[in-house]
């Protein structure tokens, strides 16, 4: 019997209060874009993704989880803030609507680099694109025409998104994603705590 293949990624789970704030922002944006032009992500399904692995053989899960725990063991807990908005690839040609994650301490970036370094030898090459921490709010519908897509970009560009929350990061999750007609179902495969001692500032 062939080994089961899972669709997986590595991410930080968000606090409930931050999810509620993201949901409120989505509701505000929904009123400003053409109906049906964006497929909004359910707030409970929004994650701060650090590494998308994609197809993952079931027998590789233990070693990926071990590598993730090793990577997280080099970092102490830290905080990031959520503020600002944007579209990928641009406001003029929007495909993804997102809010920005700010990492003033650079600890998030260092953690992500360490995860990349330790999972790369397991068959998941380091991303060529630089890490751009963000939370995906929605994706422009495949059925949206050029006018509707442009209207989405204009609405997001006009929106002012001040700080809507912060996230205290104490752990990272190795997550399975199952795509279903009703939306993605997420299952945590492993949890890796940030276990390094905090930096002491004299």
Describe the structure.
- The protein has 202 residues and is α+β, with helices and mostly antiparallel strands.
- It has one domain: Cyclic Phosphodiesterase, Chain: A (Alpha-Beta Complex).
- Helices cover 26% and strands 35% of the residues.
- A 5-stranded antiparallel sheet has the order 2-6-5-4-7, covered by helices on one side.
- Helix 2 packs antiparallel against helix 3.
- The radius of gyration is 18 Å and the shape is globular.
- The mean pLDDT is 93.
What can be said about this structure in brief?
With 202 residues, the chain is of the alpha+beta class.
Which labels suit this protein?
202 residues, alpha+beta, Cyclic Phosphodiesterase, Chain: A, five-stranded antiparallel β-sheet, four-stranded antiparallel β-sheet, 26% helix, globular
- CATH architecture tag: Alpha-Beta Complex
Strand arrangement, major sheet: 2-6-5-4-7
Our count of domains comes out at 1
The global form is globular
Rg over CA atoms, rounded to whole Å, is 18 Å
For the sheet with most strands, the description reads: 5 strands, antiparallel
Structural class: alpha+beta
Number of continuous helical runs: 4
CATH H-level homologous superfamily name: Cyclic phosphodiesterase
C-alpha termini separation: 59 Å
